[in-house]
From TrEMBL:
GO terms for cellular component: membrane. Residues 2-83 form the Longin domain. Gene3D superfamilies: Longin domain. This is Longin domain-containing protein. The keyword DNA-binding does not apply. Coiled coil: none annotated. Keywords: Membrane, Protein transport, Transport. The keyword Signal does not apply. Belongs to the synaptobrevin family. It is found in: Membrane.
Length: 96
């Protein structure tokens, strides 16, 4: 299982992203972010094309990653939780 794309978004505005391989992740991420905002659920898993998009929605911020394996949901969920925890614990360093 490989996480090939990840982003952090506020609403539909992507604040940071990283793609480890080529692909049209931005288009798919925009669609996934729109669906996440409509659902407003804390966790979402969306199958799109050959990737599975996992999201974590906390306080208006969406943490999103794409993986290539439909069977493993634990690894992407743990990754997103770790990213959100990192930003929470170090939020004072990122504010002005």
């Amino acid at each position: 299982m490989t996480i090939t794309y990840s982003c952090i978004a506020n609403g539909r505005a992507v604040l940071a992203e990283l793609a480890l391989t080529g692909g049209s992740y931005q288009e798919a991420a925009a669609t996934v972010l729109k669906l996440v905002l409509l659902r407003a659920e804390p966790k979402t898993i969306i199958h799109m094309g050959s990737f599975v998009y996992h999201t974590l929605f906390i306080d208006g911020i969406t943490y999103l990653c794409a993986s290539d394996n439909t069977l493993d949901t634990i690894t992407p969920s743990a990754f997103l939780k770790n990213v959100s925890n990192f930003l929470y614990y170090f939020k004072d360093f990122f504010s002005y």
